[in-house]
């Protein structure tokens, strides 16, 4: 069985085996799937600018004619050179075409298939994992703490930036649900801190917290304004929609950091409404009432404790992926219950 994860996946991606031209990338981290697909395609073409060297196919369209994948893979390029095919898998099966290519692998064509978080009994995944030669399956899962540390160093090094210890600790908890989203946040942070030499905790709170996912606002606002019933309802909707639990925790972490910073200003004597209207990042008007409720019911000390609670939950969702939804829901319900009474 050829299913790669961790260091084995990294080694294969650094030097792709020509004897396994078919690569299935799957998993809950869609950003990592795309990043790895981009790298494989770039390494598989002699001339990336040649419009005839790369073919893009839709998996659902292939399901009607799986043999088209075989025809494209075995086609002889007019001007020679290596070619690549990029397939976006959907809900319909085109495994017959993949199995035909596994039986007779092409020599000068790399086939990269991008899939979602497909189950072990999925026909496409089973075909690639069980292939003695010709194919390999690579799982793309949310980054662990060590992966996030390397990502932070790689992105900030390119901008000649160091990062303070406390800033790194908080930043680590805010990243990891999606590789592409993590890179985007780091690049935004690097741009914000350009010329400073060192990224501070203030930079992280100001910049990275300004990225709340509007689809998750209902869950987060319900938790911090003390509405556990709404948390349960909205969380269930998010799970049905296929939302990764770590993304919900990430959104809650960002909001907790925002509320904590705002709470410090309110303690200094500025009314909450004034701070919310004039602060940065600016909170969407639809969330203002929930934020005011949270600031009334949750003290600065309690918000600091919630930040630690969410950081622990973020790490646990990565360490125990199968229990991620339960961990995230339990944490948010705990916050909602504590927010129902003044702390």
UniProtKB/TrEMBL annotation:
Gene3D superfamilies linked: 1.10.8.60, P-loop containing nucleotide triphosphate hydrolases
GO BP of this protein: DNA-templated DNA replication
DNA polymerase III delta N-terminal domain span: 24-121
Reactions performed catalytically: DNA(n) + a 2'-deoxyribonucleoside 5'-triphosphate = DNA(n+1) + diphosphate
UniProt cross-references to SUPFAM superfamilies, sorted A to Z: P-loop containing nucleoside triphosphate hydrolases (SSF52540), post-AAA+ oligomerization domain-like (SSF48019)
EC number: 2.7.7.7
Pfam families, A to Z: DNA_pol3_delta
Similarity comment text for this entry: Belongs to the DNA polymerase HolA subunit family.
Protein name in UniProt: DNA polymerase III subunit delta
């Amino acid at each position: 069985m050829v299913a790669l994860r961790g260091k084995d996946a990294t080694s294969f991606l650094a030097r792709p085996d020509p004897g396994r031209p078919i690569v299935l990338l799957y998993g809950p981290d869609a950003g990592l799937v795309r990043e790895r697909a981009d790298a494989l395609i770039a390494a598989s073409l002699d001339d990336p600018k040649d419009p005839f060297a790369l073919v893009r196919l839709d998996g659902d369209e292939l399901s009607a004619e799986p043999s088209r994948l075989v025809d494209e893979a075995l086609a002889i390029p007019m001007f020679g050179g290596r070619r690549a095919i990029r397939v976006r898998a959907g809900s319909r099966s085109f495994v017959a075409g993949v199995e035909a290519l596994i039986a007779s692998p092409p020599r000068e064509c790399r086939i990269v298939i991008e899939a979602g978080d497909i189950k072990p009994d999925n026909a496409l995944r089973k075909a690639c994992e069980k292939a003695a030669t010709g194919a390999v399956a690579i799982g793309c899962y949310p980054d662990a703490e060590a992966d996030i540390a390397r990502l932070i160093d790689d992105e900030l090094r390119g901008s000649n930036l160091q990062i303070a210890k406390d800033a790194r600790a908080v930043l680590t908890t805010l990243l990891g649900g999606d590789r592409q989203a993590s890179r985007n946040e780091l690049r935004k942070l690097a741009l914000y801190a350009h010329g400073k030499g060192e990224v501070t905790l203030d930079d992280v709170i100001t910049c990275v917290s300004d990225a709340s996912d509007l689809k998750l606002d209902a869950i987060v606002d319900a938790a911090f304004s003390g509405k556990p019933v709404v948390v349960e309802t909205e969380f269930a909707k998010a799970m049905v929609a296929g939302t990764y639990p770590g993304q919900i925790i990430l959104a809650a972490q960002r909001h907790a950091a925002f509320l904590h910073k705002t709470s410090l200003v309110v303690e200094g004597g500025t009314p909450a409404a004034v701070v919310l209207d004039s602060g940065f990042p600016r909170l969407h008007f639809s969330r203002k009432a929930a934020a005011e409720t949270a600031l009334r019911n949750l003290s600065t000390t309690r918000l600091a404790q919630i930040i630690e609670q969410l950081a622990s939950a973020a790490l646990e969702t990565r360490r125990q992926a199968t229990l991620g939804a339960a961990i995230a829901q339990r944490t948010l319900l705990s916050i909602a219950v504590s927010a129902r009474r003044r702390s």
